[in-house]
Fold each of these.
Amino acid sequence: MAKTFIKYSEGTAQYFVEDLGNGVELEMVLIPKGTFIMGAPENEECSLDSERPQHEVTVPTFLMGRYQVTQAQWK
């Protein structure tokens, strides 16, 4: 079975705070564009056919909430 290694690094992120009104704010973080390989290789143990074929995926830059959405933010 292939081992997966995660590379951690510290740095700074671009973000902004959206004022939703009534003292409720939403912190958003900029996720930069990038490309990665999605899916499992044929020989990966315990992988499913639905995880194949492996393919390259490119995502544009987008914003994501820094924390889970609260009920106040949802309302």
Amino acid sequence: DGITYGKGAVFLNQIINSIGETCFFNGCKAYFKKFPWQNTELKDFMQCLNEAVQGQDLLEFSDIWLKN
């Protein structure tokens, strides 16, 4: 629905603005390489972003932002 897609888009924009486009796209590339044609969960995507950023805990950020 519109609310879900809107919130997801805002969340992704916040992540990109927080870690930068280069780290975000490096994390996306790692995610797609690691999980081709597989079912995954949000934690899998966020873990790949964490590895690209090296140091920030994006899992905690996503839990706070998306689950409240």
Amino acid sequence: MTTATAEPTVARRVHDLQDYIRQGRILDAMNEFYDAAVSMQENNTAPTVGLAANIEREKNFLAYVKQWVGYEVRSINVGPDTSAVESTLEFHAVDGKHIVINQVAVQRWNNGKIVSERFYYNAA
């Protein structure tokens, strides 16, 4: 009997990605789960294209976080090459604000990597 080594399913990759985020390993997650040419978009703003540019964007966001309070996944939906994750991020910002963001991230996958991701949330 032979066992074929299959590429991890999108479902497995999505769950692994959430584990990285829960552990605070956001930059590690970007290197592990995102394609070099990834396009990431916040609501209706112009997308940021390329892994290096998105890592810099994420570093800027992380510099605003003074202390993480929590990250909770509310639901995960997975298709053959897409996923949608509904989650809540909560943190204290360096300016003293207490921030709670309820968001949905919609991801397109190719060869085990995210090639595009768009976040939907109330930016108010």
